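testing teh design pipeline on a random one, pls ignore if ur not involved
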């Protein structure tokens, strides 16, 4: 086959593939018109701004806590047991507290965070 012949074969194959793709697309496209608004599931710009504002308020509140309070809060959120948190508090911070005190601290921190979030919104 010569060079012109090979080019013709490639061009022919391209036309066949494009036509086959068009046929598939025509069979799959919906027969009814698409809705006026199609949502991709992503939050709108307003929702993103609201979420960013909420995250900023939470960060400000948490940064006001002591390092130990942040440690307890994050460890509890991550699912660590109270006994593990108690041992880590003693090892890392030299703070010895009861398991009940850790649970009460976490409860109060959550309550404080909720309150500060409601007040600022």
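output:
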């Amino acid at each position: 086959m010569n060079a012109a012949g090979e080019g013709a074969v490639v061009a022919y194959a391209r036309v066949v593939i494009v036509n086959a793709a068009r046929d598939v697309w025509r069979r799959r496209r919906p027969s009814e018109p698409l809705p006026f608004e199609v949502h991709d599931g992503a939050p709108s710009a307003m929702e993103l701004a609201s979420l960013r504002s909420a995250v900023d308020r939470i960060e400000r509140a948490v940064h006001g806590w002591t390092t130990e309070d942040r440690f307890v809060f994050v460890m509890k959120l991550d699912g660590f047991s109270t006994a593990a948190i108690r041992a880590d508090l003693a090892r890392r911070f030299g703070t010895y507290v009861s398991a009940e005190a850790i649970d009460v601290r976490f409860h109060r921190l959550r309550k404080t965070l909720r309150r500060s979030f409601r007040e600022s919104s």
